[in-house]
């Protein structure tokens, strides 16, 4: 079982940048599609971004496309989410997740970290 630990959340102002990190341990990290979801207060958890284990193909929700960049370092068992041009509507708890495929990840069928809070003020 893979364990995930997120870091890098915090307070930001609109237009700022933050980088989230997710450290994985206890499994074969390089064989999993990794991604990020977020959950704002009173809303359902939603998909943000994913990166495949092969070819490092990336996927983004339309709301973050062009502003967020997901990347991974298999040698370090790390996945990152670079968030630029932050908006107040990006405020949420951000969760790192991994699964056997992009479809499984987007279906919330993988394993999860505990989450890290991102708060963006206007």
Structure explained in plain terms:
With 122 residues, the chain is mainly β. It is 4% helix and 50% strand. The protein has one helix and eleven strands. The strands form two sheets. Strands 2, 4, 5, 6, 9, 10 and 11 form a seven-stranded mixed beta sheet that branches. The chain has a four-stranded antiparallel beta sheet with strand order 1-3-8-7, with no helix packed on it.
Structure characteristics:
about 120 residues, single chain, mainly beta, four-stranded antiparallel β-sheet, seven-stranded mixed β-sheet
List strands and helices in order, with pairings.
Elements: E1 3-7, E2 10-13, E3 18-25, E4 33-39, E5 46-51, E6 58-60, E7 68-73, E8 78-83, E9 92-99, H1 102-106, E10 111-112, E11 116-121
Parallel strand pairs: 2-11
Antiparallel strand pairs: 1-3, 3-8, 4-5, 4-9, 5-6, 7-8, 9-10, 9-11
């Amino acid at each position: 079982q893979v364990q995930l630990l997120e870091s890098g959340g915090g307070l930001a102002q609109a237009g700022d940048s933050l980088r989230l990190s997710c450290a994985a341990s206890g499994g074969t990290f390089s064989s999993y599609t990794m991604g990020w979801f977020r959950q704002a207060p009173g809303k359902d958890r939603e998909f943000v971004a994913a990166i495949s284990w092969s070819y490092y193909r990336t996927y983004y929700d339309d709301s973050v496309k062009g502003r967020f960049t997901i990347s991974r370092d298999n040698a370090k068992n790390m996945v990152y989410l670079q968030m630029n041009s932050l908006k107040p509507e990006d405020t949420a708890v951000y969760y790192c997740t991994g699964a056997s495929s992009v479809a499984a990840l987007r279906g919330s069928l993988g394993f999860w970290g505990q989450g890290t809070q991102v708060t963006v003020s206007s």
